[in-house]
């Protein structure tokens, strides 16, 4: 297993800054997800780890070895791309072992690794087929097999499931996580999908505008977001952010618990009943859940409640939330202690 360290890594093209002061430690044998919106720098970070991009400054260490100036072939990594990058004229077996053949690995060793990898991924009965004869999920397994057969201890994945349908994506998430744990791989995985990040990661690194907004375990990121960006990016529906006037919700006499600029409350923490008056502006019925968009003073509060609740737009309701579920942020969007 191999750990990864990024030390003060920056990347810019002329006046355009893609990454700034990235400091990150990824534990050996862990599943780390780089998460964030388009253009936040997550793919650039992955490519710098891989050696496909050169950092403008800073260092990259893999298993304690400085690889900043080494080409990808000397970093002992494998990579799975978004578009699979399979050779259409080669069989599944030849696609998986192509890299080994180029490196002149002995034929007996190639055959052994191919058998092990194909068995692990359920591809043994598909080895003679061409990529055009495979489903999307099977093609993804072939691309993964090509990475695994190299037996590198670091595997980098750039949105590998984005081309699959929702159900298959969910199945592959489970399979990928099980494989990573079974093989003891250090995985760095890029996605914009918070469900992928939260369900697979040991560590989520949330990026925003080329900087790390927060790096934490999924539960910690959800329970104690460090900034308003983290608070609203993680969670469906997003955390409510209510503007405050001192220690009151703007436009009302509702107490916020303390003076701050923003009060954050998860929609699922808000319950019907209590002492906070609100007006239901609109409703989303989702079967098991009912999403209410309510007015509290001059602010809008989203409430996630049971789907069987009988409410309609225009209803007057009373709401409540535990004091312990309140999050407070300053004017710069930073969490208050």
Regions with little confidence, pLDDT below 50 for 5+ residues: none
Distance between the termini: 37 Å
Q: What is the residue-mean pLDDT, rounded to a whole number?
A: 95
Helix content: 25-40%
User: Could you tell me the radius of gyration in angstroms?
Assistant: 24 Å
- Strand order of the biggest β-sheet: 6-7-8-3-9-10
Question: What oligomeric state do the depicted chains represent?
Answer: single chain
Structural class: alpha+beta
Helix and strand pattern: EEEHEEEHHHEHEHEEHHEEEEEEEE
Q: What profile does the largest beta sheet have?
A: 6 strands, mixed
What is the 3D form? elongated
Percent strand equals 25-35%
Record field, number of beta strands = 18
Q: Count of helical segments?
A: 8
What does this structure look like?
- With 337 residues, this protein is α+β, with helices and mostly antiparallel strands.
- The chain has 8 helices and 18 strands.
- The strands form 4 sheets. A 6-stranded mixed sheet has the order 6-7-8-3-9-10, sandwiched between helices. The protein has a 4-stranded antiparallel sheet with strand order 2-1-4-5, with helices on one face.
Q: Could you give a quick summary of the protein structure above?
A:
It contains 8 helices and 18 strands. With 337 residues, it is α+β, with helices and mostly antiparallel strands. The longest helix is centred in the middle third of the chain and has 18 residues.
